[in-house]
Amino acid sequence: MVGLADIGSFTDAGNRYGDLNQDYVLVQKAFSKDELCDKEGVQQCYVATVLDGHGMLGELIAEKAGHALVDDTCTRAKKNGCNLLMQPQDKLKGALASAFEKAHQASLAVYDDPPSCISYPIDGTNKARYTLYRPNGLPLYRPDSSYNRVCGDRLLECGTTCTMAVVQGDRLCIANVGDSAAALVSLVDGDVEARFLTTDHNGRNDEEAQRITRDHGSMARISEDRGYLSVFAGIWAGLELSVTRALGHKHLEAYGVLCEPTVRSVTLQPEDTCLIIASDGVWDVMDAREAANRVMDVISGGGTAEEAARQLVRDTVMLAECSPDGDADNTSAIVIVFE
């Protein structure tokens, strides 16, 4: 039977935002050793998630949402007869959608008591100090006068992408919102193959674009050049977002930004070797096959999952920094190795 053999993670701030890293990674076991001993035949359930925060305070949203999501999922694993992934697919989708909703609600606490002053990057080397104002009731951060012409005011609207994997025995379930992604790596006849198990939620996804146009077309549109969700009506007119689903967006919910995840379950096969969960810092630089080859080079050489995740992230950042624009995003990865 296929099962989990090793798991590891690594994250790097890159250079785009200086030392600010809005990615967040979290790995947790659902059952303690004592709980496994008390429940004969129960297999450990592993929950792993990569979140990519965006906007001012996006790093706080990612952290709060990540802990709430993983804790709720582990609780559900314990309450479901210890076989979370064995329930019918519609019930599993409903359970994980509820977990994502709880994570979304938990992350909204950031808006209740935001810091009055923060430092936020202007570029890869400089930061500006911002002070919170509420003109006409709108929460926004205003930079110190010396940076006002360069930066301008920034509305307090933040969120995070999220991709979560749940592994128990030979069952794997992936749930995601946004553009962080998970790729399943297989070794077939000596060749490394990789396929994404996640759905990118952005304007280039026809179903998402049609949903925004159908349900919110009077207030928002999908920009033709970049596929961003673009608000053109109401008090938030002018706001743009690169994803159409995310956690933590308090004000953009009204314009179609959903926290409901896409859920996919698979039964692991003997040829399945590992799973790579990563933020778009990885996937904007390399495709699934290249990432899989880099991870497999480490694992086949006797390296651990953590070493493979570290190598993948460092290789990605190096390639991005050596690109023509020299711009490396926050970059994170979790590698799960199967027996």
Task: Write up this protein.
The structure is a single chain. The protein has helices at 33-38, 58-79, 89-107, 109-112, 148-151, 206-216, 280-283, 288-300, 305-321; strands at 4-12, 23-29, 45-54, 117-121, 127-133, 140-143, 154-155, 159-168, 171-177, 181-188, 191-196, 220-222, 229-231, 240-241, 262-267, 272-278, 331-338. With 339 residues, the protein is of the alpha+beta class. The chain is globular, with a radius of gyration of 20 Å. The model has no long low-confidence stretch (mean pLDDT 93). Residues 6-338 form the PPM-type phosphatase domain. Pfam families: PP2C (PF00481).
Low-confidence runs of at least 5 consecutive residues: none
What Rg is obtained from the alpha carbons, in whole angstroms?
A: 20 Å
Strand tally = 17
Alpha-carbon distance between the two ends:
8 Å
Beta fraction of the residues?
25-35%
Classify the secondary structure makeup into a structural class: alpha+beta
Shape summary: globular
Largest sheet: 5 strands, antiparallel
- Helicity level, as a percent range? 25-40%
**Number of helical runs?**
9
Please state how the strands of the largest beta sheet are arranged side by side: 1-17-16-10-11
Strand/helix succession: EEHEHHHEEEHEEEEEHEEEEEHHHE
Query: Overall pLDDT, averaged?
Result: 93
